[in-house]
UniProtKB/TrEMBL annotation:
Identification of the protein by name: SET domain-containing protein
A GO cellular component entry from the record: nucleus
Gene3D superfamilies: set domain protein methyltransferase, domain 1
PANTHER family listed in its UniProt record: SET DOMAIN-CONTAINING PROTEIN 8, UNCHARACTERIZED PUTATIVE METHYLTRANSFERASE
Molecular function as annotated in GO: protein-lysine N-methyltransferase activity
Superkingdom: Eukaryota
Cross-referenced SUPFAM superfamilies: SET domain (SSF82199)
Organism of derivation: Lepidopterella palustris CBS 459.81
Amino acid sequence: MIRRGRAEGWLKLPISAFRPWAEWNGVSFNGIQIGPMPGFEQRGSTIIAERDLADGNEGPLMIVPRDLILSLESVQTFAKADQQLKEVLNSLDDFGRTARGAILVFLLMQVTISCPDISESTGVTNPLTEYIKFLPDELLPTLWTEEEQDLLVGTTLKPAVRAKLNSLLREYERFRIATKHIDWCKKHWWHGGENNDEDNEDDDLDANDRALEQGRLAFEDWMYVDAMYRSRALEFPGIGDCMVPCVDMANHSSGEATAALYETDRDGNGVLLLREGKLIKAKGEITITYGDEKGACEMIFSYGFIEDSMKSAKVIFLDLDIPHDDPLRAAKIAVTTAAPGFRIFDKGDCTGWESDFVWLVCVNEEDGLSFKLAQTIDGETELKSFWMDGDLEDTSKLRDLLQTHALWDVYQLRAVSLLQNRIEAQLQALNETDHGERNATIREIPWMLADRLRNLEMELLERAYSDLEDQKLVLLQSESVRRYLGIAGEEEDFT
């Protein structure tokens, strides 16, 4: 692997060298330092107050020059002076022109430059070549072992991790195919190009075994730079998705516990500011928010932790399938513009749900939904959807049309029953998986995170099931539902 080189840990620099590096590259600090919190060294480095800090008495706590911010714009600027970086970006076409694609390639180039197994000069060294050596190895679920990922069975994180790994493997394979004909990439990444004749883009994760034999640059390297970027990406005003050295050393806290916010100044520099009304004592931690609305699943997926104060899973997304005996199933799948599932969220005293997809599942031809083949202006044919003979251009708008119908309560009852059945199946999956005691091959952090996520999701799902039952009982008293039942018969199955 490129990032490991001849010995484990070669890539790392001590955090004691961080401030000299930052100040040398134009970062200014005001009353703060970066390092481990006293007594909490196991949590890694964070931003700490050197003295008492009070909003109104302080200017920016930190200013990061714009040319040190890693963004699509800065990668394109680096590529003007780095011919090898430019070659790789150009080979990737559209992917190399996205923020994610450009930044991942840039990070991989810095790892390659630092690899002790590559003696020849590769790429152009820049300040960020040293910066990545200060970053810890992120323990995101995509980097867990298969045994550790199996702890997630029954949670919504398990399918999310599987989908992400498949997506990363496809990216890696396309990256390999795009770069294997570049001479220096062939030499340093792909072992001279041997065994690279088949441009196989198989989505199956078993292809990882084949990919790892293709050269020095392994699939794990791609997963590593993805984790490095995904866990530290921030959206800055005027810049977009980027990595901001020094600011991204701040840990997360939500709500009133968030100490600082980040933005850009009029010169495009990144600045860290104490929140209004905040007072941080000396040796206190300066935190930012990674997103207060993010649920437990997303926090583990993107950042590898759950906030200690999190008492609820907050948000759960469950997939939802169209029954195989639905005669319109294929047509519905072909035209849908909605995510195939539904979102459950915690509203404090109760739960709520939202879904554009469920309405397409719960209506059919006898209700007024139909599909027809139509010819486009260029002579091609396309499948078009209709509701009550009116053109349904966007299936995500179906709910708005159903709301105006006399049978709206009937449609709601069908939807609630569908969601309740899906939640029941998820709860059963959670209850059927018991992992017993942790063995020595499973690390403590994945074990604890998986257990906590299971408990948080189970609690929210149980509340949601109960709330949907209440909604169902109310809908059953609706005049339109009662009339519909009287017409259709008492044994009508609304699922």
